[in-house]
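Title: Comparing notes on inverse folding

I've been comparing how different people in this forum approach sequence design from structure. To keep things fair, I'm posting one structure and asking everyone to reply with a full sequence. Here's the target:
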């Protein structure tokens, strides 16, 4: 963990989460940690998800939409992120090391430090709010109605007023499991956002470097700086491609389930009667809906920044007063402008959708359309 010290706090927190929850993987791992991984992950990952899935199949469609679907789909996305992180863990750590290496060292250290501080505040705020949302699942325990926090079936074990001990054991198990799953899910979101933000920061540095080429007086120094910029541009492209290869599938799954999840959450929120007893549940459901929106907004925003900053590279090359340079140098700039304009850096989800703000609005529109259909169906049943 010493090599992770240069990383921002939010990213270091995610790595500690992976170590504490048995996701950490490296060569020559100690046998006691491998044993601990199975002791932890079997009851709090696989057994938890299995009981949730079986419990969901025991309900009719309306109960499924109201009670379990919004959590079930989020759990599926979390599982994909966690499994993908585990299998690509060594490559992810390499990407983290590259992001703080001398190759990505800032030319304007003060400005980059400010950008990273703002990024860290955003990601830590998202982490804390999501964690508080997971803690709200414990509300049911203190309401005295013996309702389980997340799913109402647990391998047929009886619970309720006649079996209070069973109820409290299962309830606290579910709350702890939900917190663990929330932290794993958010850890994946933070790492994706950090990787995309790193690409954007490097493209912004390249933009300033290209613009300043004309201010370099000596030809040899200018050519050396231009070669350095080209090398760095290729390095950033490879970094972005590696990020896309590792996180493309998890992000794709996240967006596929997010529309249905937000729809199910809004549908559940609309079915809760506004009474003093239901106020904690309304607040918890609203916080969950906001967390889901932020979860898909982060990769869309930072992916959109990559597209915009990549497109600005062509403008920065054109603005470097190329007409003052010699013919050979102008030819190099023209070739690079063709490259940056025709093959701009983008990160895709599942090799289908570009991560941008348009994808975010499309997901919200799909969620609202599905919610309107459900509301219309429910009103039709009530009237008939």
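Reply #1:
Here's my take.
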């Amino acid at each position: 963990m010493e090599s992770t010290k240069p990383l921002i706090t939010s990213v270091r927190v995610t790595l500690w989460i992976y170590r504490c929850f048995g996701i950490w993987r490296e060569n020559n791992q100690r046998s006691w940690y491998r044993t601990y991984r199975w002791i932890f992950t079997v009851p709090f990952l696989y057994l938890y998800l299995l009981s949730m899935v079986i419990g969901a199949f025991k309900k009719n469609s309306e109960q499924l939409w109201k009670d379990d679907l919004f959590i079930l789909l989020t759990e599926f996305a979390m599982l994909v992120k966690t499994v993908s992180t585990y299998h690509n863990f060594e490559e992810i750590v390499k990407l983290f090391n590259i992001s703080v290496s001398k190759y990505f060292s800032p030319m304007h250290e003060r400005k980059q430090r400010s950008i990273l501080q703002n990024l860290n505040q955003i990601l830590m705020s998202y982490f804390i709010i999501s964690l508080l949302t997971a803690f709200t699942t414990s509300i049911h325990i203190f309401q005295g109605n013996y309702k389980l926090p997340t799913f109402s079936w647990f391998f047929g074990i009886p619970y309720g007023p006649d079996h209070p001990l069973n109820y409290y054991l299962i309830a606290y198990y579910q709350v702890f499991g939900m917190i663990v799953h929330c932290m794993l899910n958010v850890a994946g979101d933070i790492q994706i956002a950090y990787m995309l933000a790193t690409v954007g920061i490097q493209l912004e540095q390249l933009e300033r470097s290209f613009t300043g080429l004309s201010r370099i007086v000596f030809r040899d120094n200018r050519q050396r700086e231009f070669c350095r910029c080209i090398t760095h541009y290729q390095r950033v492209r490879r970094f972005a491609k590696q990020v896309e290869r590792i996180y493309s599938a998890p992000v794709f799954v996240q967006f596929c389930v997010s529309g249905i999840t937000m729809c199910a959450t809004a549908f559940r929120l609309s079915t809760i009667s506004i009474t003093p007893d239901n106020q904690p549940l309304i607040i918890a459901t609203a916080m969950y809906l906001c967390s889901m929106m932020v979860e898909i907004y982060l990769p869309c925003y930072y992916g959109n920044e990559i597209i915009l900053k990549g497109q600005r590279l062509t403008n920065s090359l054109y603005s470097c007063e190329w007409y003052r340079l010699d013919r050979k140098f102008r030819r190099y700039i023209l070739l690079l402008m063709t490259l940056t304009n025709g093959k701009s850096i983008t990160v895709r989800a599942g090799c289908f959708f570009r991560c941008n703000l348009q994808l975010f609005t499309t997901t919200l529109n799909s969620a609202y359309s599905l919610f309107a259909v459900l509301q219309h169906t429910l009103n039709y049943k009530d009237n008939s």
